[in-house]
Amino acid sequence: NKKAFVELLFWKSPAAVREMTEGYSSLREGEGAGRSRVPPWTPQQEQELRELYWKYKEVEGSEDVIAAILAHLPAPGRTRRQVVKQLVRL
């Protein structure tokens, strides 16, 4: 590609540089940036999240609802940010 030098003018991640050098279909699923993807929420996990939210939403003296949810969430490895994002989505 004669115009590949234009791509070098913009910031690239290591995965994008690898694609440029090895070909744009070189990344297989499960490699590069896709590897860090969070697992999707199952319907059962969503239901548990809803129940925990409604349980801890109105508890007096509990200012941090998300911390209470994280402490009782059966799905290990979920971060505070993931829980908040999912609650907003729901």
Automatic annotation (TrEMBL):
Superkingdom, taxonomy of origin: Eukaryota
InterPro entries assigned: Timeless (IPR044998)
GO annotation terms (biological process): DNA repair; DNA replication checkpoint signaling; replication fork arrest
Record GO cellular component, one term: replication fork protection complex
GO molecular-function term, one example from the UniProt record: DNA binding
Pfam entry (one): HTH_TIMELESS
Protein name as annotated: TIM protein
